Amino acid sequence: MVIVYFILILTGVIMVHELGHYLFARLFKVKVLEFAIGFGPKIFSVKGRETTFRLNVFPIGGYVRMLGEEGEEIADEEEKEKSFYAKPAWQRFLITLAGPLFSILAGYLLFLPITLNWGIALPGIDEVVPGSPAEEAGLRRGDIIYSINDKIAFDTSIISNEIQKGLPVELVIIRNGEKKSLRLTPRMYPETYEFVLESAEGTPSGKLVSVNGNRDTSVLKEFVNEYVVLEFEGGTVKGILKQFNEIPARYMIGISFSGLAPVFKKDIYFKEGLFVFKKGDRIVRVEDQEIEGWQDLVVLYQRLTLGKDTMMVSLQGNDLEWWRGLSGSVRVVIKRGDSTIEKNVEASFLKNILETPDLLEMGVPRYKPKNPLEAVNLSVKACNYVLLTTASSLKNFFRNVQTGQIVGVVGLAGVISAASKTGLEAVLTVVAVITISLGVLNLLPLPALDGGRIIFSLVEMITRKRLNPQVENIIHFLGFIFLMILFLYITFLDIGRMMGI
Protein backbone atom coordinates (compact mmCIF):
# COMPACT_ATOMS: atom_id res chain seq x y z
CA MET A 1 0.00 0.00 0.00
CA VAL A 2 2.89 2.34 0.75
CA ILE A 3 4.20 1.83 -2.81
CA VAL A 4 0.76 2.78 -4.17
CA TYR A 5 0.73 5.94 -2.00
CA PHE A 6 4.24 6.77 -3.14
CA ILE A 7 3.46 6.40 -6.86
CA LEU A 8 0.15 8.30 -6.63
CA ILE A 9 1.64 11.18 -4.66
CA LEU A 10 4.73 11.50 -6.85
CA THR A 11 2.61 11.26 -10.02
CA GLY A 12 0.20 13.93 -8.77
CA VAL A 13 2.99 16.31 -7.74
CA ILE A 14 4.78 15.92 -11.09
CA MET A 15 1.53 16.29 -13.03
CA VAL A 16 0.77 19.65 -11.40
CA HIS A 17 4.28 20.88 -12.21
CA GLU A 18 4.16 19.79 -15.85
CA LEU A 19 0.61 21.12 -16.20
CA GLY A 20 2.00 24.60 -15.55
CA HIS A 21 4.43 24.26 -18.47
CA TYR A 22 1.73 22.74 -20.69
CA LEU A 23 -0.95 25.38 -20.07
CA PHE A 24 1.40 28.31 -20.61
CA ALA A 25 2.83 26.69 -23.75
CA ARG A 26 -0.71 26.39 -25.12
CA LEU A 27 -1.46 29.95 -24.02
CA PHE A 28 1.39 31.23 -26.20
CA LYS A 29 0.49 28.83 -29.05
CA VAL A 30 3.55 26.59 -28.70
CA LYS A 31 2.92 23.11 -30.04
CA VAL A 32 3.33 20.51 -27.31
CA LEU A 33 4.44 17.18 -28.73
CA GLU A 34 4.41 15.13 -25.50
CA PHE A 35 3.13 15.48 -21.96
CA ALA A 36 4.86 12.70 -20.02
CA ILE A 37 4.82 11.54 -16.43
CA GLY A 38 7.92 9.54 -15.56
CA PHE A 39 10.93 8.52 -17.61
CA GLY A 40 11.92 5.42 -19.55
CA PRO A 41 9.72 3.11 -21.64
CA LYS A 42 6.05 4.03 -21.82
CA ILE A 43 3.35 2.09 -20.00
CA PHE A 44 0.59 3.55 -22.14
CA SER A 45 -0.15 6.70 -24.14
CA VAL A 46 -3.12 8.64 -25.49
CA LYS A 47 -2.86 10.71 -28.68
CA GLY A 48 -4.59 14.08 -28.59
CA ARG A 49 -5.06 16.55 -31.45
CA GLU A 50 -1.47 17.80 -31.11
CA THR A 51 -0.12 16.22 -27.95
CA THR A 52 0.64 12.66 -26.95
CA PHE A 53 -0.04 12.08 -23.26
CA ARG A 54 2.05 9.21 -21.88
CA LEU A 55 2.82 7.46 -18.63
CA ASN A 56 6.34 6.03 -18.35
CA VAL A 57 7.83 3.29 -16.20
CA PHE A 58 9.91 5.30 -13.72
CA PRO A 59 7.74 7.85 -11.83
CA ILE A 60 10.63 10.04 -10.68
CA GLY A 61 10.02 13.02 -12.91
CA GLY A 62 8.25 14.15 -16.04
CA TYR A 63 8.49 16.46 -18.98
CA VAL A 64 6.57 18.52 -21.51
CA ARG A 65 8.30 18.23 -24.90
CA MET A 66 7.61 21.23 -27.10
CA LEU A 67 8.21 21.64 -30.81
CA GLY A 68 11.70 22.97 -31.51
CA GLU A 69 12.72 22.81 -27.85
CA GLU A 70 15.76 20.68 -28.67
CA GLY A 71 16.99 23.12 -31.32
CA GLU A 72 16.04 20.96 -34.29
CA GLU A 73 15.46 22.50 -37.73
CA ILE A 74 11.83 22.92 -38.79
CA ALA A 75 11.22 23.29 -42.49
CA ASP A 76 7.49 24.05 -42.44
CA GLU A 77 7.01 27.80 -41.82
CA GLU A 78 3.59 27.36 -40.24
CA GLU A 79 4.94 24.73 -37.86
CA LYS A 80 8.02 26.83 -37.19
CA GLU A 81 5.83 29.61 -35.76
CA LYS A 82 4.55 27.10 -33.18
CA SER A 83 8.05 26.13 -32.01
CA PHE A 84 9.40 26.99 -28.57
CA TYR A 85 12.36 29.04 -29.78
CA ALA A 86 10.21 30.99 -32.26
CA LYS A 87 8.57 32.71 -29.30
CA PRO A 88 10.02 35.84 -27.69
CA ALA A 89 12.21 35.44 -24.62
CA TRP A 90 9.56 36.76 -22.21
CA GLN A 91 7.08 34.08 -23.32
CA ARG A 92 9.70 31.31 -22.99
CA PHE A 93 10.51 32.75 -19.54
CA LEU A 94 6.86 32.46 -18.44
CA ILE A 95 6.42 28.97 -19.93
CA THR A 96 9.46 27.77 -17.98
CA LEU A 97 8.52 29.62 -14.78
CA ALA A 98 4.98 28.22 -14.83
CA GLY A 99 6.08 24.73 -13.72
CA PRO A 100 7.76 25.76 -10.44
CA LEU A 101 5.05 28.37 -9.89
CA PHE A 102 2.24 25.80 -10.20
CA SER A 103 4.09 23.48 -7.80
CA ILE A 104 4.49 26.19 -5.18
CA LEU A 105 0.91 27.47 -5.58
CA ALA A 106 -0.43 23.91 -5.26
CA GLY A 107 1.32 23.62 -1.88
CA TYR A 108 -0.18 26.93 -0.74
CA LEU A 109 -3.67 25.86 -1.82
CA LEU A 110 -3.32 22.48 -0.12
CA PHE A 111 -2.29 23.98 3.22
CA LEU A 112 -5.55 25.94 3.52
CA PRO A 113 -7.97 22.96 3.83
CA ILE A 114 -5.44 21.27 6.14
CA THR A 115 -5.50 24.31 8.43
CA LEU A 116 -9.30 24.66 8.24
CA ASN A 117 -10.04 20.98 8.91
CA TRP A 118 -7.30 19.89 11.31
CA GLY A 119 -5.76 23.13 12.53
CA ILE A 120 -2.04 23.69 12.71
CA ALA A 121 0.56 22.02 14.91
CA LEU A 122 2.30 24.48 17.21
CA PRO A 123 4.86 23.68 19.95
CA GLY A 124 3.40 22.85 23.33
CA ILE A 125 5.07 22.96 26.74
CA ASP A 126 5.71 19.62 28.43
CA GLU A 127 7.74 20.65 31.48
CA VAL A 128 8.53 23.92 33.24
CA VAL A 129 11.75 23.94 35.28
CA PRO A 130 11.21 25.17 38.87
CA GLY A 131 12.76 28.58 39.49
CA SER A 132 13.27 29.22 35.75
CA PRO A 133 12.29 32.38 33.81
CA ALA A 134 9.40 30.36 32.35
CA GLU A 135 7.99 29.52 35.79
CA GLU A 136 8.48 33.09 36.98
CA ALA A 137 6.56 34.36 33.94
CA GLY A 138 3.69 31.96 34.63
CA LEU A 139 4.11 29.36 31.87
CA ARG A 140 2.50 25.98 32.55
CA ARG A 141 2.50 22.43 31.23
CA GLY A 142 0.03 22.22 28.33
CA ASP A 143 0.45 25.82 27.17
CA ILE A 144 0.83 26.19 23.39
CA ILE A 145 3.37 28.70 22.08
CA TYR A 146 1.70 30.64 19.26
CA SER A 147 4.45 33.16 18.51
CA ILE A 148 7.72 34.57 19.78
CA ASN A 149 8.73 38.14 18.98
CA ASP A 150 5.87 38.27 16.44
CA LYS A 151 7.15 35.16 14.61
CA ILE A 152 4.63 32.32 14.37
CA ALA A 153 6.16 29.27 16.10
CA PHE A 154 5.80 26.74 13.29
CA ASP A 155 8.85 24.91 14.62
CA THR A 156 10.70 24.70 17.93
CA SER A 157 13.84 25.98 16.18
CA ILE A 158 12.13 29.36 15.71
CA ILE A 159 11.69 29.59 19.48
CA SER A 160 15.21 28.34 20.25
CA ASN A 161 16.83 30.78 17.82
CA GLU A 162 15.11 33.76 19.45
CA ILE A 163 15.95 32.58 22.98
CA GLN A 164 19.62 32.01 22.07
CA LYS A 165 20.01 35.75 21.47
CA GLY A 166 19.76 36.20 25.23
CA LEU A 167 17.44 39.22 24.88
CA PRO A 168 13.97 39.63 26.41
CA VAL A 169 11.32 37.80 24.36
CA GLU A 170 7.62 38.40 23.84
CA LEU A 171 5.62 35.17 23.85
CA VAL A 172 2.03 34.72 22.81
CA ILE A 173 0.67 31.50 24.29
CA ILE A 174 -2.65 29.70 23.94
CA ARG A 175 -4.19 28.45 27.17
CA ASN A 176 -7.70 26.99 27.24
CA GLY A 177 -8.28 28.32 23.72
CA GLU A 178 -7.40 31.90 24.60
CA LYS A 179 -4.28 33.86 23.64
CA LYS A 180 -2.16 35.47 26.32
CA SER A 181 0.99 37.61 26.03
CA LEU A 182 4.01 37.12 28.30
CA ARG A 183 7.41 38.77 28.47
CA LEU A 184 10.45 36.97 29.89
CA THR A 185 14.22 37.17 29.79
CA PRO A 186 16.32 34.06 28.99
CA ARG A 187 18.97 33.00 31.48
CA MET A 188 22.40 31.50 30.79
CA TYR A 189 22.55 27.87 31.91
CA PRO A 190 25.82 25.92 32.33
CA GLU A 191 27.01 23.21 29.93
CA THR A 192 25.39 19.79 30.14
CA TYR A 193 27.11 16.41 30.13
CA GLU A 194 25.04 13.47 28.93
CA PHE A 195 26.69 10.06 29.00
CA VAL A 196 26.03 6.33 29.16
CA LEU A 197 27.94 3.81 31.27
CA GLU A 198 27.96 0.08 30.58
CA SER A 199 28.59 -2.51 33.33
CA ALA A 200 27.73 0.33 35.70
CA GLU A 201 28.27 -0.05 39.44
CA GLY A 202 27.33 2.34 42.22
CA THR A 203 24.84 5.13 42.72
CA PRO A 204 25.57 8.79 41.84
CA SER A 205 24.50 11.59 44.17
CA GLY A 206 25.32 15.27 44.29
CA LYS A 207 28.00 17.06 42.27
CA LEU A 208 30.59 15.27 40.12
CA VAL A 209 33.90 15.74 41.96
CA SER A 210 36.51 13.84 39.93
CA VAL A 211 37.04 11.62 36.87
CA ASN A 212 39.65 8.86 37.39
CA GLY A 213 41.06 10.99 40.19
CA ASN A 214 41.23 14.15 38.06
CA ARG A 215 39.46 17.16 39.57
CA ASP A 216 38.98 18.67 36.12
CA THR A 217 35.75 16.86 35.26
CA SER A 218 35.79 18.18 31.67
CA VAL A 219 38.33 15.43 30.85
CA LEU A 220 35.46 12.90 30.95
CA LYS A 221 35.03 13.27 27.16
CA GLU A 222 38.55 11.85 26.68
CA PHE A 223 37.62 8.44 28.12
CA VAL A 224 34.98 7.22 25.64
CA ASN A 225 35.09 3.39 25.40
CA GLU A 226 37.31 3.25 28.49
CA TYR A 227 36.72 2.22 32.10
CA VAL A 228 36.08 5.25 34.34
CA VAL A 229 35.75 5.88 38.06
CA LEU A 230 33.47 8.84 38.77
CA GLU A 231 33.50 10.36 42.25
CA PHE A 232 30.30 12.16 43.19
CA GLU A 233 29.70 14.01 46.45
CA GLY A 234 27.42 11.20 47.61
CA GLY A 235 28.94 8.09 46.04
CA THR A 236 31.24 6.45 43.50
CA VAL A 237 30.16 5.12 40.10
CA LYS A 238 32.27 2.84 37.90
CA GLY A 239 31.74 1.57 34.37
CA ILE A 240 32.69 1.75 30.70
CA LEU A 241 31.94 5.13 29.15
CA LYS A 242 30.11 4.15 25.92
CA GLN A 243 28.51 7.45 24.90
CA PHE A 244 29.28 11.05 25.73
CA ASN A 245 27.61 14.27 24.59
CA GLU A 246 28.46 17.78 25.73
CA ILE A 247 25.91 20.53 25.23
CA PRO A 248 27.57 23.95 25.62
CA ALA A 249 26.34 26.66 27.99
CA ARG A 250 23.38 28.41 26.43
CA TYR A 251 20.50 30.76 27.06
CA MET A 252 17.26 29.03 28.05
CA ILE A 253 13.93 29.93 29.60
CA GLY A 254 13.47 26.58 31.35
CA ILE A 255 10.93 24.64 29.31
CA SER A 256 10.87 21.38 27.40
CA PHE A 257 8.62 20.93 24.40
CA SER A 258 5.71 18.56 24.23
CA GLY A 259 5.38 15.58 21.90
CA LEU A 260 3.21 12.56 22.57
CA ALA A 261 1.20 12.05 25.74
CA PRO A 262 1.36 8.75 27.71
CA VAL A 263 -2.26 8.03 26.74
CA PHE A 264 -3.26 5.27 24.31
CA LYS A 265 -5.37 6.16 21.25
CA LYS A 266 -6.43 2.55 20.66
CA ASP A 267 -6.38 -0.90 22.22
CA ILE A 268 -2.96 -2.58 22.26
CA TYR A 269 -2.90 -6.34 21.88
CA PHE A 270 -0.10 -8.67 22.94
CA LYS A 271 -1.59 -11.29 20.67
CA GLU A 272 -4.94 -11.75 18.99
CA GLY A 273 -7.78 -11.46 21.47
CA LEU A 274 -5.53 -10.60 24.42
CA PHE A 275 -5.24 -6.86 24.96
CA VAL A 276 -2.65 -5.32 27.25
CA PHE A 277 -3.72 -1.68 27.20
CA LYS A 278 -7.08 -0.15 26.33
CA LYS A 279 -7.90 3.07 24.54
CA GLY A 280 -7.73 5.92 27.08
CA ASP A 281 -5.30 4.16 29.44
CA ARG A 282 -2.67 6.54 30.82
CA ILE A 283 0.79 5.27 31.81
CA VAL A 284 1.63 6.81 35.19
CA ARG A 285 4.71 4.80 36.21
CA VAL A 286 7.17 2.30 34.80
CA GLU A 287 9.25 0.61 37.51
CA ASP A 288 10.69 3.51 39.56
CA GLN A 289 9.96 6.25 36.97
CA GLU A 290 6.95 8.54 37.15
CA ILE A 291 5.51 9.24 33.68
CA GLU A 292 3.77 12.57 33.25
CA GLY A 293 4.56 13.71 29.71
CA TRP A 294 6.69 13.52 26.60
CA GLN A 295 10.09 14.06 28.20
CA ASP A 296 9.40 11.17 30.58
CA LEU A 297 8.52 8.98 27.58
CA VAL A 298 11.80 9.97 25.91
CA VAL A 299 13.77 8.94 28.99
CA LEU A 300 11.74 5.72 29.25
CA TYR A 301 12.50 4.84 25.62
CA GLN A 302 16.21 5.46 26.19
CA ARG A 303 16.15 3.17 29.23
CA LEU A 304 14.40 0.44 27.24
CA THR A 305 16.97 0.81 24.47
CA LEU A 306 19.98 0.63 26.80
CA GLY A 307 18.98 -2.59 28.48
CA LYS A 308 20.55 -4.32 31.46
CA ASP A 309 23.53 -3.11 33.56
CA THR A 310 23.65 0.31 31.92
CA MET A 311 23.21 3.77 33.36
CA MET A 312 22.52 7.08 31.65
CA VAL A 313 23.48 10.28 33.42
CA SER A 314 22.70 13.94 32.76
CA LEU A 315 24.73 16.63 34.54
CA GLN A 316 23.99 20.32 34.24
CA GLY A 317 26.09 22.25 36.73
CA ASN A 318 25.06 20.84 40.11
CA ASP A 319 21.84 19.29 38.77
CA LEU A 320 22.04 15.52 38.41
CA GLU A 321 19.62 13.07 36.80
CA TRP A 322 20.35 9.39 36.26
CA TRP A 323 18.50 6.26 35.24
CA ARG A 324 19.32 2.59 34.89
CA GLY A 325 18.48 0.66 31.72
CA LEU A 326 15.47 -1.65 31.64
CA SER A 327 15.25 -5.20 30.33
CA GLY A 328 13.22 -8.33 30.83
CA SER A 329 9.84 -7.93 32.50
CA VAL A 330 8.96 -4.40 33.68
CA ARG A 331 6.15 -3.22 35.93
CA VAL A 332 3.80 -0.71 34.30
CA VAL A 333 1.21 1.21 36.29
CA ILE A 334 -1.72 2.62 34.32
CA LYS A 335 -4.72 4.77 35.14
CA ARG A 336 -7.97 3.43 33.63
CA GLY A 337 -10.86 5.67 34.53
CA ASP A 338 -10.88 5.84 38.33
CA SER A 339 -8.88 2.62 38.69
CA THR A 340 -5.14 2.05 38.97
CA ILE A 341 -3.90 -1.15 37.34
CA GLU A 342 -0.48 -2.79 37.41
CA LYS A 343 0.77 -4.94 34.56
CA ASN A 344 4.02 -6.77 33.90
CA VAL A 345 5.12 -6.53 30.26
CA GLU A 346 8.32 -7.32 28.42
CA ALA A 347 10.64 -4.35 27.95
CA SER A 348 10.95 -5.18 24.23
CA PHE A 349 7.14 -5.12 23.86
CA LEU A 350 6.89 -1.73 25.58
CA LYS A 351 9.75 -0.39 23.42
CA ASN A 352 7.92 -1.55 20.28
CA ILE A 353 4.78 0.30 21.43
CA LEU A 354 6.71 3.54 21.82
CA GLU A 355 8.22 3.09 18.33
CA THR A 356 4.89 2.51 16.58
CA PRO A 357 3.26 5.60 15.04
CA ASP A 358 -0.24 6.73 15.94
CA LEU A 359 -0.64 4.65 19.13
CA LEU A 360 -0.40 7.54 21.60
CA GLU A 361 -2.32 10.81 21.91
CA MET A 362 -0.66 14.12 21.15
CA GLY A 363 0.55 16.05 24.20
CA VAL A 364 -1.24 19.24 23.14
CA PRO A 365 -4.08 19.66 20.63
CA ARG A 366 -3.59 21.31 17.26
CA TYR A 367 -4.55 24.96 17.15
CA LYS A 368 -7.67 25.62 15.10
CA PRO A 369 -7.98 29.23 13.89
CA LYS A 370 -10.99 31.16 15.14
CA ASN A 371 -12.11 32.31 11.68
CA PRO A 372 -11.36 31.73 7.97
CA LEU A 373 -9.24 34.90 7.71
CA GLU A 374 -6.90 33.68 10.46
CA ALA A 375 -6.78 30.26 8.77
CA VAL A 376 -5.73 31.85 5.47
CA ASN A 377 -3.13 33.99 7.24
CA LEU A 378 -1.66 31.02 9.13
CA SER A 379 -1.62 28.68 6.12
CA VAL A 380 0.15 31.30 3.97
CA LYS A 381 2.73 31.95 6.68
CA ALA A 382 3.23 28.19 7.16
CA CYS A 383 3.92 27.84 3.43
CA ASN A 384 6.29 30.81 3.53
CA TYR A 385 8.20 29.03 6.30
CA VAL A 386 8.37 25.78 4.27
CA LEU A 387 9.57 27.79 1.26
CA LEU A 388 12.35 29.53 3.19
CA THR A 389 13.36 26.34 5.01
CA THR A 390 13.61 24.42 1.73
CA ALA A 391 15.72 27.16 0.14
CA SER A 392 18.00 27.20 3.20
CA SER A 393 18.36 23.40 3.13
CA LEU A 394 19.36 23.48 -0.54
CA LYS A 395 21.90 26.22 0.13
CA ASN A 396 23.39 24.23 3.00
CA PHE A 397 23.45 21.07 0.90
CA PHE A 398 25.54 22.66 -1.82
CA ARG A 399 27.85 24.01 0.88
CA ASN A 400 28.25 20.40 2.09
CA VAL A 401 26.56 21.22 5.40
CA GLN A 402 23.60 19.41 6.97
CA THR A 403 23.19 17.06 4.01
CA GLY A 404 20.79 15.01 6.11
CA GLN A 405 18.12 17.66 5.45
CA ILE A 406 17.89 16.58 1.79
CA VAL A 407 16.14 13.35 0.85
CA GLY A 408 15.85 11.63 -2.50
CA VAL A 409 13.36 9.10 -3.85
CA VAL A 410 14.30 6.43 -1.28
CA GLY A 411 14.10 8.86 1.62
CA LEU A 412 10.85 10.26 0.23
CA ALA A 413 9.31 6.79 0.21
CA GLY A 414 10.19 6.48 3.91
CA VAL A 415 8.60 9.85 4.71
CA ILE A 416 5.40 8.92 2.85
CA SER A 417 5.34 5.52 4.57
CA ALA A 418 5.54 7.13 8.02
CA ALA A 419 2.86 9.69 7.12
CA SER A 420 0.48 7.03 5.78
CA LYS A 421 0.53 5.30 9.18
CA THR A 422 -0.47 8.52 10.94
CA GLY A 423 -3.47 9.61 8.90
CA LEU A 424 -4.82 11.71 6.02
CA GLU A 425 -3.72 15.03 7.51
CA ALA A 426 -0.09 13.88 7.70
CA VAL A 427 -0.20 12.57 4.12
CA LEU A 428 -1.67 15.83 2.78
CA THR A 429 0.92 17.86 4.70
CA VAL A 430 3.72 15.76 3.21
CA VAL A 431 2.25 16.25 -0.28
CA ALA A 432 2.10 20.04 0.26
CA VAL A 433 5.70 20.15 1.48
CA ILE A 434 6.89 17.94 -1.41
CA THR A 435 5.23 20.07 -4.09
CA ILE A 436 6.57 23.33 -2.63
CA SER A 437 10.03 21.76 -2.36
CA LEU A 438 9.82 20.57 -5.97
CA GLY A 439 9.01 24.10 -7.09
CA VAL A 440 11.92 25.59 -5.15
CA LEU A 441 14.33 22.88 -6.35
CA ASN A 442 13.43 23.55 -9.98
CA LEU A 443 14.16 27.26 -9.56
CA LEU A 444 17.83 26.53 -8.88
CA PRO A 445 19.88 28.21 -11.65
CA LEU A 446 21.31 24.91 -12.90
CA PRO A 447 21.30 23.67 -16.51
CA ALA A 448 18.57 21.08 -17.20
CA LEU A 449 16.41 22.54 -14.41
CA ASP A 450 13.75 25.17 -15.04
CA GLY A 451 15.93 27.67 -13.19
CA GLY A 452 18.71 27.21 -15.75
CA ARG A 453 16.32 27.82 -18.65
CA ILE A 454 14.93 30.88 -16.85
CA ILE A 455 18.46 32.31 -16.60
CA PHE A 456 19.01 31.89 -20.36
CA SER A 457 15.71 33.66 -21.06
CA LEU A 458 16.55 36.51 -18.68
CA VAL A 459 19.98 36.98 -20.27
CA GLU A 460 18.36 37.17 -23.69
CA MET A 461 15.76 39.66 -22.45
CA ILE A 462 18.52 41.89 -21.06
CA THR A 463 21.13 41.60 -23.84
CA ARG A 464 18.66 41.24 -26.74
CA LYS A 465 20.91 38.46 -28.04
CA ARG A 466 19.83 34.84 -28.36
CA LEU A 467 22.20 31.99 -27.62
CA ASN A 468 22.24 29.28 -30.28
CA PRO A 469 19.52 26.80 -29.20
CA GLN A 470 21.77 23.83 -30.01
CA VAL A 471 24.53 25.22 -27.76
CA GLU A 472 21.96 25.84 -25.01
CA ASN A 473 20.74 22.24 -25.27
CA ILE A 474 24.29 20.90 -25.02
CA ILE A 475 24.68 22.89 -21.79
CA HIS A 476 21.39 21.48 -20.50
CA PHE A 477 22.51 17.96 -21.42
CA LEU A 478 25.71 18.37 -19.39
CA GLY A 479 23.58 19.73 -16.55
CA PHE A 480 21.35 16.67 -16.79
CA ILE A 481 24.38 14.40 -16.37
CA PHE A 482 25.40 16.39 -13.29
CA LEU A 483 21.88 16.07 -11.85
CA MET A 484 21.87 12.31 -12.42
CA ILE A 485 25.16 12.03 -10.52
CA LEU A 486 23.67 14.19 -7.76
CA PHE A 487 20.55 12.01 -7.74
CA LEU A 488 22.66 8.88 -7.25
CA TYR A 489 24.63 10.59 -4.46
CA ILE A 490 21.46 11.60 -2.59
CA THR A 491 20.08 8.08 -3.05
CA PHE A 492 23.29 6.76 -1.51
CA LEU A 493 22.75 9.12 1.45
CA ASP A 494 19.14 7.89 1.80
CA ILE A 495 20.24 4.26 1.87
CA GLY A 496 23.00 5.10 4.35
CA ARG A 497 20.47 6.74 6.67
CA MET A 498 18.17 3.71 6.42
CA MET A 499 21.06 1.39 7.30
CA GLY A 500 22.29 3.67 10.09
CA ILE A 501 25.62 4.39 8.35
TrEMBL record:
<dbReference type="InterPro" id="IPR036034">
    <property type="entry name" value="PDZ_sf"/>
</dbReference>
<keyword id="KW-0482">Metalloprotease</keyword>
<feature type="transmembrane region" description="Helical">
    <location>
        <begin position="6"/>
        <end position="25"/>
    </location>
</feature>
<keyword id="KW-1133">Transmembrane helix</keyword>
<feature type="transmembrane region" description="Helical">
    <location>
        <begin position="474"/>
        <end position="495"/>
    </location>
</feature>
<keyword id="KW-0862">Zinc</keyword>
<dbReference type="Pfam" id="PF17820">
    <property type="entry name" value="PDZ_6"/>
</dbReference>
<keyword id="KW-0378">Hydrolase</keyword>
<dbReference type="InterPro" id="IPR001478">
    <property type="entry name" value="PDZ"/>
</dbReference>
<keyword id="KW-0472">Membrane</keyword>
<dbReference type="InterPro" id="IPR004387">
    <property type="entry name" value="Pept_M50_Zn"/>
</dbReference>
<feature type="transmembrane region" description="Helical">
    <location>
        <begin position="426"/>
        <end position="444"/>
    </location>
</feature>
<dbReference type="GO" id="GO:0006508">
    <property type="term" value="P:proteolysis"/>
</dbReference>
<feature type="transmembrane region" description="Helical">
    <location>
        <begin position="93"/>
        <end position="114"/>
    </location>
</feature>
<dbReference type="InterPro" id="IPR041489">
    <property type="entry name" value="PDZ_6"/>
</dbReference>
<keyword id="KW-0645">Protease</keyword>
<protein>
    <submittedName>
        <fullName>Peptidase M50</fullName>
    </submittedName>
</protein>
<comment type="similarity">
    <text>Belongs to the peptidase M50B family.</text>
</comment>
<feature type="transmembrane region" description="Helical">
    <location>
        <begin position="401"/>
        <end position="419"/>
    </location>
</feature>
<dbReference type="Pfam" id="PF02163">
    <property type="entry name" value="Peptidase_M50"/>
</dbReference>
<dbReference type="InterPro" id="IPR008915">
    <property type="entry name" value="Peptidase_M50"/>
</dbReference>
<dbReference type="GO" id="GO:0016020">
    <property type="term" value="C:membrane"/>
</dbReference>
<feature type="domain" description="PDZ">
    <location>
        <begin position="125"/>
        <end position="151"/>
    </location>
</feature>
<keyword id="KW-0812">Transmembrane</keyword>
<dbReference type="GO" id="GO:0004222">
    <property type="term" value="F:metalloendopeptidase activity"/>
</dbReference>
